[in-house]
Amino acid sequence: MTVLTVGLTGGIASGKTLVRGLLAELGCATFDSDQAARALVAPGMRALSEIVQTFGREFVLPDGQLDRLRLARRIFEDAAARSRLQAILHPRIFELQDRFLLDCAAGGRHALAVVDAALMFETGSYKKYAVVVVVRSRPEQQQQRLQDRDHLSAEEASRRIAAQMPLDQKASRADLVIDNAGTKEAIAKQVLEAWFWLLWRAACSGFHLRKEIAKTC
Predict the structure, then answer these.
(1) Residue ranges making up the domain that contains 155
(2) Run of H or E including 29
């Protein structure tokens, strides 16, 4: 079975997790880059040791876990610190993503392999996917969701959103946009339509094609 590689991206608190979950329910193989990052910084992992060496022991909790809240505050207040953290984590995350895609291609059990990652356009990693899907919401919704989800002040939420490429800019570069501005029923309908479209693209390509080749299909 031919596997179509799908990059699922958007902004922080835009609804990527919801869309990935719905695609998984439809039978897609999915990869959660945030979950991968959490596993990479578990106690005993090399990435955690490098973070401690870079930022200090004060970013580790008494039980040995990374103090994610404290580190998040640091990196969203300091672009240089954010770059140092990304230099530790991104190569490892990319390696896991690539392994997932290779396993999907070798397994032959799925038509669609979906990788969920927030910073695809910022890192340039979107180029390795045949199709890029962006989940978009209205700015005020994104802001409120982030404040509610992570218990942040309006200023903190705005700073974290500003650290990423604007959603409208990401949407303008996508092959497909899913709008998360409405109800869960509305987004579920869009995801189902997207799933059918992606299956058509997988059947149409027949091979692992780059986006620019697949567009001629």
Answers:
(1) 4-214
(2) strand 29-32
